[in-house]
C-alpha cells in the first residue's frame, strides 16, 4: 500500500460556523494506481490533493504514507518525505521564470543535494525523453503552454518519485496539448508510477483506472 | 548550490531593473555618504595627533580676571615658557610660537607680495615637539639665530620659482632674511598653518628690549613637551606658584595660567589668540546623524523594495517548497541575493569614492587623505561591508520569505500578508528622516540668507580696502597720501584705519568714569581710524560729535559705540560725553557715541568698540570708487601706488566681499547638509516610485472592481494619493519636533538669528507632498485608467 487516508476531516471556522473542506475521507492507494479525482468547483478536490501531497494539514483522522504516520510528523520531516517520493504538476505550470528549461529541471535535484555529474545525467535523460533537448536553454516565457506543462511534468518526474500529484494539469491547455500530457501520464503509469490527478474533464478522467467523485468534501 | 543562487539572483536583478537600480543606487549612495562623513569625522577627531609625542604635548593658556570681566587667552607671556622649563623637571622641551600681526611685504628681486596670517615666529624647540620634516635644511640649526626663515615649497615656487632655496636671501619688510629650510605644505589636520617660520631670535630683536621679561604682555603660543602625560596635574600645581602671578604681586588684573593637552585643543572652547581653525563638535554630530540617517534610508529602501515583491516572489517560494526546497534553502537564496546586491553596491561605491575624492574634499572644506584605502587591512575589511549591510537589510525579508507556506500563494493571489504593515512603518520612518533633513537644510539656508540680508549699519558699497600692513611711515604721512590718492579720478572718499569691518580689532583694557562716578575698567575693542572713517562707512553718530579735522583729536578723543556705553552703566549716550578715559596709548575724554553696527560676523553680538585716531597704527586704506570706469580707476591707483611705494605691494579686496567671507564656513556647511539632503530626498523618492509600482499592482484589481461599480477616475486617483500621503504626513509630524529642537540648538550659535514660525514648516511639507505626488502620479494614473477587463480576468 502506498498511502492510506482514514477518517480525514479538514475544516475552517468562518463566522462562528465550522465549514468542512474534507469530511470523513477514506482512501487507500496502492502502488501503480492511476486515480482521477472529480467533482464540481469547491468540492475539495484540490484540498484533498494538497493533503495527500503534505502541502496542507488536516484536522482529524490518520494518514499513512509508505507505513509512516504523516499525521504524527513534524513539518520538516513531512517535507523530507514528500521531497523524496512525490512530484507535483500544476494547472498553471509554476515554472520558475528566471530559470531556463534545463535549470528548472535541475532545481529539485539541487534541493535533494545530488552531485553535479548526477544532476547533469538525469537532466539530459529527462530532456531526451520529453524531446526538449533543443529547448533546454529557453526560458518558460519562450515556450507554449503545452511545452511548459511538459517541462512541469518532467520536473515532477526527475527525482523519480513514487507518486505524481497533478492538479488540473490540462486546465490551461487546448485539447491537443492536453491529450499529449495525458498520454505521457498514461505511459508513466505503465512504467509503474502512481498518479493522482484532479480534473474536470470526463475524457481526461477516463485515462485513470479509478475515479473518485467528491461533493462538498465527501467522497460519493 | 550557491552558484545556482547567484545565477538566479543576477537574473532576477536584471529582470527587475527599476527596483534593483533603486536598491543599488540607495545602497551605494549610503555607503559613499557614510564613508565621507566617517573619514571627515576621523580626520577632525584625529586633529594634531600625527606627532610622535602628541600625547605628551601641552599648551599653556592664560586667563585674566578683571573687575569688568574675565578673558581667556590661548596665549602666554614670553618669559613663562623659559621659566617653567628652568624650574620644572617635568618639562622636556619648549616651543613658543608668535603669529605675525598684519600684512607684510616680502620680496625676492622683482617678485613682491604682501603676506598675512601665514607668518609664525618659532623657538628652535619647534622641531623637537612637532614632527614636521624639512625637505632641505637642518632642523637643529634652522631656527637658532636671528633673521632665519623656513618657507614652504609653495612659497619657494612663488618667490624663487624653484625649490633650490637654501641659504638664499628673501627681503622681509625690506630686511634681508636667510632661507634656512624648506618645508612641505602643512597638512590640513594641524592647527599650525604657516608658510613662513621665522626664528624667535628675530622676533625679540625687533621687539621692545624688555619683551622677553614682560609678564603682562601675552604674545606667545607656548607648548611644552612633558616627560609623561600623567605629569599634567603636577605641572598645573606648579603653575599656581609662578611668583609673578601670585596674588600679592598683582594689581588690578589677576593673571593665571593653565594647561591644555594638544589632542584636546581642536574642540575646546575658542580662546583669544589661538592658532588655526577650531572644530565644532556639534557640526560633527550633526553630520554623523545625517550619515546614519542616509544609511538607514538606504537599508529601509532595501527592505521595503525586497518585501514589496512578495507577490512575485511568494509564488516562487511556494513552487520551490513543493519541489523540495527547505526553509533553510529559501533563506539562503534570499540572503545570497542580498549579498550579491550589497557586494555590487560596495564595488560601485569604491569606484564612486575613488572618482569623487578630489572634488569632495574640496566641497567639504577638508583635505581627504585616502592612502589608507590601499592598506591591506582595507581589503580584508571591505568584504565586511556587504555582509553587514546584508545582515541589516537582508535578514528580515529572507526570514519572511522563507516562512511563506507552500500552498496559499499557489492557491490564490488575494492572500493578505500581515507583515506588509512593516512597509508602511518603514515608509513613515523614511519620510520622517527625509522631512527632518529638508527642514534642517531649509533652516540653515534661511539663516544664511538672514545673515546676508541683515542691515549691518555699515555702508560697504563700492569700497576697496588696500592692505599695506604695519608701516608707521605711511601712517604718519597719511594726510598727504590721502591727497595724492584722492587726486586719482574716480576715487571718491578715502579713510585710513587699523581694521575694517569683518575684522575683530584688538581688545584693550580701558578705564572710563562710569555712571556712578567711579573709574571702571573694561576690555574694549579698539579700532584706530582717521577723521573720515565714520563718515565714509556711513556710521551714525547718536551723541556728541564725529572726529574733526583741525581739532586736536589725536589719541585724546574717544568715540564709543552704544554697546560700550551701556557696559559702563549709562542709559543715555549723552551722559557719557566728556567722561575721562585711560586706554592703551593715552588718555583723554569721550567725545561721541555711534549707533551699534555689526563689525563682526552675526555669530557674535555687537562687541564693545572704541574708535580713536592714531596714524602710526594705521594699516589699511578704504577707498570708495565711482561705478564708472572702475577698472581704469583701479589701474591708475595701482600705478600711483607703485610710484609712491615700490616696495609695498598693492594688495586690495572689496570691503563687502571681505565681510561676507566670514560666512564661508557656514556656507560650506550649508552646502554639505543640502547635498546630503538632496541625496536623501532622491533616495526617498526613488524608493517611493519603486514601492508605488508594486503597491499599484496589488490594488489593480480593487480599482477595476470599483470602476466597474461606477467610481469616477478623479475619486480613485485621490484614493490612491491619500494612501501615499498619509505615511508622508505622519513622517512629517514626527520630524517636526525633532527638527525644531535640533534646528533651535544649531541656531543658538548665532547672536542674530531668524525666528522659526509655524509657516516655516509649510514649505518643506509642500515640497515633500509635491515630490511624492509626482513620484506616484504616473503609476496611479496608469492603474486608474486601465481597462477593468484586463485586471478582472481570472487565470
Question: Please, could you describe this protein's structure?
Answer:
Chain A has one domain (3-219): P-loop containing nucleotide triphosphate hydrolases (Rossmann fold, 3-Layer(aba) Sandwich), CATH 3.40.50.300. Chain A is built from seven helices and ten strands. Chain A has helices spanning 45-52, 75-85, 101-111, 116-129, 145-157, 175-190, 202-205, and strands at residues 3-14, 17-29, 34-38, 60-65, 68-69, 86-89, 163-167, 194-198, 210-215, 218-219. In chain A, strand 4 and strand 5 (68-69) form a beta hairpin. By secondary structure, chain A is α/β, with parallel strands linked by helices. In chain A, strands 6-7-8-3-9-10 form a six-stranded mixed beta sheet, sandwiched between helices. Chain B folds into three domains: 2-41 and 281-450 and 666-792, no CATH class; 54-264, no CATH class; 463-663, no CATH class. Chain B is elongated, with a radius of gyration of 34 Å.
Outline of this structure?
The complex is a heterodimer of chains A (220) and B (795). Chain A is an alpha/beta fold and 220 residues long. Chain A has helices spanning 45-52, 75-85, 101-111, 116-129, 145-157, 175-190, 202-205; strands spanning 3-14, 17-29, 34-38, 60-65, 68-69, 86-89, 163-167, 194-198, 210-215, 218-219.
Amino acid at each position: 500500500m502506498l498511502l492510506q487516508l482514514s477518517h480525514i476531516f479538514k475544516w475552517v471556522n468562518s463566522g462562528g460556523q465550522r465549514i468542512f473542506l474534507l469530511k470523513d475521507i477514506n482512501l487507500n492507494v496502492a502502488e501503480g494506481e492511476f486515480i482521477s479525482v472529480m467533482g464540481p468547483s469547491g468540492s475539495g478536490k484540490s484540498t484533498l490533493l494538497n493533503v495527500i501531497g503534505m502541502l496542507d494539514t488536516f484536522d482529524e483522522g490518520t494518514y499513512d504514507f509508505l507505513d509512516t504516520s504523516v499525521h504524527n510528523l513534524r513539518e520538516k520531516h513531512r517535507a523530507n518525505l514528500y521531497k523524496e517520493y512525490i512530484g507535483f504538476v500544476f494547472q498553471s505550470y509554476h515554472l520558475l521564470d528566471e530559470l531556463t528549461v534545463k535549470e528548472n529541471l535541475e532545481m529539485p535535484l539541487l534541493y535533494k543535494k545530488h552531485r553535479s555529474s548526477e544532476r547533469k545525467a538525469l537532466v539530459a535523460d529527462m530532456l531526451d525523453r520529453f524531446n526538449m533537448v533543443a529547448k533546454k536553454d529557453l526560458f518558460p516565457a519562450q515556450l507554449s503552454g503545452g511545452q511548459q506543462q511538459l517541462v512541469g511534468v518532467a520536473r515532477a518526474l526527475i527525482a523519480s518519485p513514487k507518486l505524481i500529484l497533478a492538479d488540473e494539469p490540462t486546465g490551461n491547455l487546448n485539447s491537443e496539448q492536453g491529450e499529449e500530457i495525458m498520454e505521457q501520464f498514461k505511459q508513466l503509469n505503465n512504467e509503474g508510477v502512481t498518479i493522482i490527478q484532479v480534473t474536470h474533464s470526463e475524457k481526461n478522467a477516463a485515462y485513470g483506472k479509478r475515479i473518485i467523485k467528491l461533493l462538498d468534501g465527501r467522497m460519493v | 548550490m550557491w552558484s545556482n543562487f547567484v545565477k538566479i539572483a543576477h537574473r532576477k536583478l536584471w529582470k527587475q531593473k527599476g527596483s534593483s537600480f533603486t536598491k543599488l543606487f540607495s545602497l551605494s549612495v549610503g555607503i559613499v555618504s557614510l564613508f565621507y562623513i566617517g573619514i571627515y569625522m576621523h580626520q577632525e577627531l584625529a586633529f594634531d595627533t600625527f606627532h610622535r609625542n602628541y600625547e605628551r604635548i601641552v599648551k599653556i593658556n592664560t586667563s585674566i580676571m578683571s573687575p569688568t570681566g574675565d578673558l581667556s587667552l590661548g596665549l602666554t607671556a614670553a618669559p613663562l615658557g623659559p621659566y617653567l622649563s628652568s624650574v620644572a623637571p617635568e618639562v622636556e622641551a619648549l616651543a613658543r610660537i608668535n603669529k605675525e600681526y598684519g600684512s607684510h611685504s616680502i620680496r625676492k628681486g622683482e617678485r613682491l607680495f604682501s603676506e598675512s596670517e601665514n607668518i609664525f615666529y618659532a623657538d628652535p624647540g619647534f622641531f623637537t615637539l612637532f614632527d614636521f620634516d624639512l625637505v632641505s635644511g637642518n632642523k637643529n640649526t634652522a631656527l637658532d639665530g636671528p633673521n632665519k626663515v623656513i618657507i614652504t615649497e609653495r612659497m619657494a615656487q612663488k618667490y624663487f620659482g624653484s625649490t633650490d632655496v637654501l641659504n638664499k636671501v628673501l627681503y622681509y619688510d625690506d630686511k634681508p632674511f636667510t632661507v634656512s629650510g624648506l618645508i612641505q605644505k602643512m597638512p590640513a589636520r594641524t592647527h599650525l598653518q604657516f608658510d613662513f617660520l621665522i626664528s624667535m631670535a628675530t622676533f625679540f630683536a625687533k621687539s621692545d628690549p624688555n619683551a622677553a621679561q614682560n609678564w603682562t604682555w601675552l604674545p606667545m603660543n607656548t607648548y611644552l613637551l612633558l616627560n609623561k602625560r600623567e605629569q599634567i596635574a603636577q605641572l598645573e600645581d606648579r603653575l599656581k606658584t609662578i611668583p609673578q602671578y601670585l596674588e600679592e604681586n598683582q594689581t588690578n588684573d589677576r593673571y593665571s595660567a593653565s594647561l591644555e593637552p594638544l589632542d584636546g585643543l581642536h574642540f575646546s572652547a575658542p580662546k583669544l589668540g589661538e592658532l588655526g581653525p577650531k572644530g565644532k563638535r556639534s557640526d560633527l554630530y550633526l553630520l554623523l546623524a545625517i550619515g546614519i540617517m542616509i544609511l538607514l534610508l538606504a537599508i529601509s529602501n532595501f527592505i521595503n523594495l525586497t518585501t514589496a515583491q512578495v507577490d512575485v516572489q511568494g509564488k516562487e517560494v511556494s513552487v520551490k517548497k513543493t519541489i523540495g526546497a527547505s526553509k533553510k534553502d529559501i533563506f539562503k537564496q534570499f540572503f545570497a541575493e542580498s549579498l550579491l546586491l550589497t557586494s555590487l553596491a560596495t564595488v560601485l561605491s569604491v569606484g564612486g569614492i575613488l572618482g569623487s575624492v578630489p572634488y569632495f574634499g574640496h566641497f567639504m572644506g577638508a583635505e581627504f587623505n585616502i592612502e589608507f584605502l590601499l592598506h591591506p587591512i582595507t581589503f580584508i575589511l571591505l568584504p565586511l561591508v556587504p555582509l553587514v549591510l546584508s545582515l541589516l537589510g537582508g535578514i528580515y525579508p529572507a526570514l519572511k520569505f522563507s516562512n511563506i507556506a507552500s500552498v496559499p500563494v499557489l492557491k490564490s493571489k488575494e492572500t493578505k500578508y500581515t507583515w506588509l504593515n512593516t512597509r508602511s512603518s518603514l515608509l513613515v520612518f523614511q519620510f520622517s528622516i527625509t522631512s527632518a533633513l529638508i527642514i534642517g537644510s531649509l533652516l540653515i539656508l534661511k539663516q544664511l540668507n538672514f545673515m546676508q540680508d541683515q542691515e549691518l549699519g555699515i555702508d560697504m558699497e563700492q569700497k576697496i580696502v588696500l592692505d599695506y600692513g604695519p608701516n608707521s611711515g605711511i601712517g604718519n604721512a597719511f594726510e598727504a597720501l590721502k591727497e595724492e590718492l584722492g587726486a586719482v579720478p574716480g576715487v571718491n572718499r578715502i579713510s585710513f584705519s587699523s581694521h575694517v569691518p569683518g575684522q575683530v580689532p584688538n581688545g584693550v583694557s580701558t578705564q572710563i568714569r562710569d555712571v556712578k562716578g567711579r573709574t571702571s575698567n573694561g576690555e574694549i575693542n579698539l579700532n584706530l581710524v582717521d577723521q573720515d572713517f565714520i563718515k565714509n562707512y556711513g556710521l551714525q553718530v547718536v551723541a556728541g560729535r564725529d572726529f574733526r579735522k583741525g581739532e586736536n583729536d589725536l589719541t585724546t578723543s574717544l568715540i564709543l559705540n552704544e554697546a560700550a556705553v551701556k557696559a559702563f552703566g549709562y542709559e543715555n549716550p549723552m551722559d557719557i560725553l566728556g567722561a575721562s578715559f585711560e586706554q592703551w596709548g593715552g588718555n583723554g575724554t569721550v567725545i561721541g557715541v555711534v549707533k551699534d553696527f555689526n563689525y563682526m560676523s552675526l555669530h557674535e553680538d555687537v562687541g564693545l568698540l572704541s574708535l580713536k585716531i592714531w596714524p602710526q597704527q594705521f594699516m589699511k586704506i578704504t577707498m570708495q570708487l565711482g561705478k564708472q570706469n572702475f577698472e581704469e580707476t583701479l589701474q591708475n591707483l595701482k600705478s600711483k601706488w607703485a610710484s609712491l611705494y615700490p616696495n609695498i605691494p598693492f594688495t586690495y579686496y572689496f570691503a563687502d566681499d571681505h565681510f561676507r567671507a566670514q560666512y564661508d564656513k557656514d556656507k560650506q556647511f550649508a552646502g554639505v547638509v543640502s547635498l546630503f539632503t538632496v541625496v536623501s530626498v532622491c533616495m526617498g523618492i526613488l524608493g517611493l516610485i519603486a514601492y508605488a509600482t508594486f503597491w499599484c499592482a496589488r490594488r489593480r484589481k480593487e480599482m477595476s472592481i470599483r470602476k466597474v461599480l461606477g467610481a469616477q477616475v478623479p475619486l480613485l486617483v485621490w484614493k490612491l494619493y491619500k494612501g501615499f500621503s498619509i505615511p508622508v504626513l505622519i513622517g512629517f509630524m514626527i520630524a517636526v519636533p525633532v527638527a525644531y529642537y535640533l534646528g533651535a540648538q544649531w541656531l543658538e550659535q548665532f547672536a542674530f538669528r531668524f525666528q522659526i514660525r509655524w509657516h516655516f514648516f509649510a514649505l518643506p511639507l509642500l515640497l515633500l507632498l509635491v515630490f511624492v505626488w509626482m513620484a506616484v502620479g504616473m503609476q496611479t494614473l496608469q492603474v486608474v485608467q486601465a481597462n477593468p477587463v484586463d485586471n478582472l480576468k481570472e487565470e
